[in-house]
Design brief:
Layout: E1 2-9, H1 16-33, E2 36-42, E3 45-52, H2 54-65, E4 71-80, E5 92-95, H3 98-106, H4 117-123, H5 125-136
Parallel strand pairs: 2-5
Antiparallel strand pairs: 1-3, 1-4, 2-3
The structure holds flavin mononucleotide.
């Protein structure tokens, strides 16, 4: 099993309705591909975790990479995992609200005044995934 985490930017921002529409078709395809994971969205910033068989994740990621609904795609972690963390989620979605941002900032050791919510997660590799999982419980 393999995971890939990336961040990207939506050029003009996505409405909640556009995010839900994107996710609805993504979930159908992910179910067929055996992909699980989670997406976080906040003010044009996107972060996604994809989990599945390595080749399947890599192929799907190539498709996602070419999608013009986002740019500046940056893989900040990929590697083998023992088991899925998002079992049962063909793609969870968390649109960050103030409460979620506070939760992320609590675990952050840098200067949160200067960092965006998603960069706080990325900066904090060892806690990032733990925070992701606690955000999952707030969906
Ligand atoms: C930020 C973002 C995340 C996406 N995540 C997924 C995903 O998890 N699964 C998926 O199948 N498509 C996802 N897509 C959509 C793909 O880029 C692509 O449109 C979709 O897989 C359909 O591809 P196909 O019809 O060419 O097979 C995502 C797109 C964006 C912009």
């Amino acid at each position: 099993m393999f995971e890939l985490l990336y961040t990207s930017l939506s050029p003009s921002g996505l409405t909640h309705a556009e995010l839900v529409e994107l996710l609805e078709s993504a979930r159908l395809k992910n179910k067929l591909l055996g992909i699980t994971g989670m997406m976080i969205y906040h003010e044009r910033e996107i972060m996604q975790i994809l989990e599945g068989e390595k080749e399947v994740v890599e192929t799907l990621f190539q498709t996602i990479l070419e999608d013009n609904r986002h740019t500046s795609v940056n893989v900040f972690y990929q590697g083998d995992i023992e088991e899925r963390a998002f079992c049962g989620w063909s793609m969870a979605l968390k649109h960050l609200d103030d409460k979620a941002i506070k939760m992320i900032a609590v675990d952050y050791e840098g200067n949160e005044q200067k960092a965006s919510a998603i960069s706080m997660l990325v900066d904090n590799q060892n806690r990032g995934k733990k925070t992701f999982l606690s955000l999952l419980e707030t969906i």
